[in-house]
Fold this protein.
Amino acid sequence: MKKSLWTMFAIFAVTLTSQASGALVISQYVETNSGSTPKGIELWNSSLDDIDFATSPLVILKGTNGAVPSSDFSLDTGLLAAGDVMVVGTSDIGTYLDSAFGAGVIHFQDEPFTFNGDDALVVQLGGVTTDMFGKAGSDPGAAWSGSDVSTANLNIALLDGITTGNPGGFIDPSTRFSVISTDPSGAGGLAGFGLAPTAVAVPEPSTVMAIACIAAIGIWRARRPKPGVSS
């Protein structure tokens, strides 16, 4: 009885704690429908803690046409505050962000990405994969697509309610993203970049443990033998 109770308690506590921990998540992606730019991704710190890239370096890897991903961008300095976003991409995205939010307001890293809709992107933080865009090792043809959402020629953003990355990747982008613009190289084509997703409220770790304790007590009370009833 005690072993079973504490096993359930541990599972409950770990589950709640993992929900509170978050990750570095690809929250928006753009691949141009004309010319070679804009191309870039927005990264969201959905955790409760600031990310220090000096201690947990950021690496973005690219897998071209199903090839093994290799480093395409790295960052080992600076901070990303809890709940904030940063954008890594071509210079025209930086120009848009400065115009929309003010110079330097949004953390932007200028990177002349050359990825196409059939290239997987892997986000690693401190050597650990936190998210994958597309499916590394898989060549989808022109793009991964599903339900009118494609990884080519679109500006797409993370669906509401998703707060964690998918380290295993996807073959259907509509499971994680919705279309913001079908003309990313046109007027308004970069809408949404620089705006952090609305986070689902998560409890502090101390609150998580308190909830877990209360739940465990409730389970114990429900399972203990009633007076006069043999087990």
Observations:
- The first strand starts at residue 24 and ends at 31.
- The chain has one domain: 23-200.
